[in-house]
Amino acid sequence: MSRYGPQIAALARRAERDRRTFDPETATPVDGETYLREGAGQVIWLYVEARTGGRLVPFSESELKALRRAMNAWLECYARCHGVELEADFTVRGAAEVLLETQNVFDTAQLLTRVPSRTAATKR
User: Residue by residue, what is the 3-state secondary structure of 55-105?
Assistant: First the structure.
């Protein structure tokens, strides 16, 4: 287990709780922003920090799986906040590469999920 183990476990628990308690009847795009800022973005940034902090932190296979499940759970909740059913299956590394390029978790989510559509995203 890496030094990030406790953080990863906490993120995984929160993501599972958020997925389980998600209510599409009351969810709004603003809620989706929260899932990105406080969920998926935290997962992606933890990965970036571990990989770029001067020393490569090795993650165990179970840690990488937990990060991936958590990030994808939050991306699915984000998409559902926009009325889109999505079965997210993105890698944390791929998301991190997009985040480093865009410097913005909202743009990262839009590029990965295509939610909202590009025309709606440019109106933001």
Answer: CCCCCCHHHHHHHHHHHHHHHHHHHHHCCCCCCCCCCHHHHHHHHHHHCCH
